[in-house]
């Protein structure tokens, strides 16, 4: 990676305090572009590229069949990079100013049925071993608070307030929000902490979720475990941690929660991001209407 690109990533890490997963996405996008520029134009860094070169790279991505959301994520990464380069006097003109976004495909959130989530969590309540309790607590928090994967991995014991029944979640841009914890979730947390102390001793690390060897969890680990457990109760293709976030929001709305309250719990900066869940709710209302109305 070029010198200026590394400086940009250091800026995001040390000044903007971006999450590890976000930094990894930026690094991947920039690495891919710089490899393309080297092979195609024999230039050594993003700072040497102009708008036609970037347009050629984006066309190359589309030819490879990347999704529109991936395309726009990479575009967003480069917009941030070139804005940084211009603000710091590395380049005179921002080549990204001439490149527009691609309209995203509209895709409704996928969620697991409420009764199936209850069935799954009930099945796992008898967990006693450390690994089983850890997996149960992961599912309880993802579904019980709607937190993101990166927020789950970054959770510390100091963020959990057992007395008040709340958890402090650090989200995108280091924004924090306090979310209530159900009594049964706190009980699982207490059982997990007790077992964690038995396995690692009283001076275990502050990360809530760790591997069997005591290291902080990583995204691939959580993906595999969530997919494994959701596969027990669902045949849906998508079984990611984010599906549990979608399920949390959809089920809350179905039970009458206000949209603005869901927005705060999810940590959305805009109500528009939360409104996508209303489509699933409206579909359920239509179904109930057709089943219940005498003239339907």
Structure description:
The mean pLDDT is 88. The protein has a 3-stranded antiparallel beta sheet with strand order 1-2-3, with no helix packed on it. Helix 1 (3-14) runs antiparallel to helix 2, helix 6 (130-145) runs antiparallel to helix 8 and helix 6 crosses helix 10. The chain has 296 residues and is mainly alpha-helical. The chain contains 13 helices and 3 strands, in the order H-H-H-H-H-H-H-E-E-E-H-H-H-H-H-H. It is globular, with a radius of gyration of 22 Å. It has helices at residues 3-14, 20-41, 51-63, 68-87, 114-124, 130-145, 149-153, 183-200, 219-230, 241-254, 259-266, 271-274, 277-292, and strands at 160-161, 166-170, 176-180. Helix content is 58%, strand content 4%. The termini are far apart.
Task: Give a short overview.
It contains 13 helices and 3 strands.
Series of H and E elements: HHHHHHHEEEHHHHHH
Instruction: Identify low-pLDDT runs.
Output: none
Mean pLDDT: 88
Q: Tell me roughly what share of residues is in helical segments.
A: 55-70%
Q: State which percent range the strand residues make up.
A: under 5%
Shape, principal axes of CA atoms: globular
Q: Mind summarizing the main beta sheet?
A: 3 strands, antiparallel
Q: How far is the first residue's CA from the last residue's CA?
A: 63 Å
The helix count comes to 13
The class by helix and strand makeup works out as: mainly alpha
Read across the widest sheet, the strand sequence of neighbours is 1-2-3
Alpha-carbon Rg, integer: 22 Å
Number of strands: 3
